[in-house]
TrEMBL record:
Domain spans labelled NAD(P)-binding: 11-107
Record's protein name: Oxidoreductase
CDD domains: TMR_SDR_a (cd05269)
InterPro entries with a match to the protein in the record: Ergot_Alk_Oxidoreductase, NAD(P)-bd_dom, NAD(P)-bd_dom_sf, NmrA-like
Region (Disordered): 252-279
Amino acid sequence: MNAAGATLVIGATGTTGSRVAAGLIAEGHRVKAAGRSATPVEGAEAVRFDWNEPATFGEALDGVDGVYLVPPIGSSDPASVMLPFLRRARSAEVHRAVLLSSSAIPAGGPAVGQIHQALPGLFEQWAVLRPSWFMQNFTGFTPHARSIREDGAILTATGGGRVGFVDAEDIAAVAVRALTDEQAPDADLILTGPQALSYDDVAAVITEVTGRPVVHRHLTFEQLRDRWAAEIPLEFATMLAGMDRAIADGAEDRTSDTVQRLTGHPPGTFRTFAERELS
């Protein structure tokens, strides 16, 4: 990448974006921290950006040669707003793009899968990060964190299916390498932690680390879909519940060596995460 160019980090105050921005800044790279309110980020240039407001695209892309892409949250059709931005980024001579996607969604699949499919044809260098479920899904104001606090329970339709939960710290570390190494991966990267765990396993670890009893309550697909649909559009609720059903069928029962291979260090364990974030 051009050393003089900045990296635009979309969602720079979010779970991965904040960590990507911090990692880039720590290595001495110029960062434009993008968000809907242009929230100041130490060491970065804050810039207002909204996927639904094309008028914000120009300033965000000015002086940029790489971009970290976090899709609009909760959208079942991110391509409608992302593709126009990406075409504009290409015209603005952005050379490298790293997309945050999901292990559950392949190239050409629904939602962000459409962006994944388009990315190699738009940019000279690229990577698609496909992390498994975030360990951070059990912290803050996420649905799992709320249900743990309020009911001492994790509610899923995953049955005994296992997931290679991954720490957002490790996702960000891979993103920094993908954005700044001399050559981008130009690849689809599955990111996991070192172990595949069931939600029963997760509940047991949280119980041991915090000393507060936590259980995993098994819901049906329909029960979970209806719970989600009370808060979000039915189409998106159905997609999320379907991801749980896929976990029950074994879709996420895997681990990868991507974090170790790209960063040089092993991915963190769920217990280490819980001791750091939940104890």
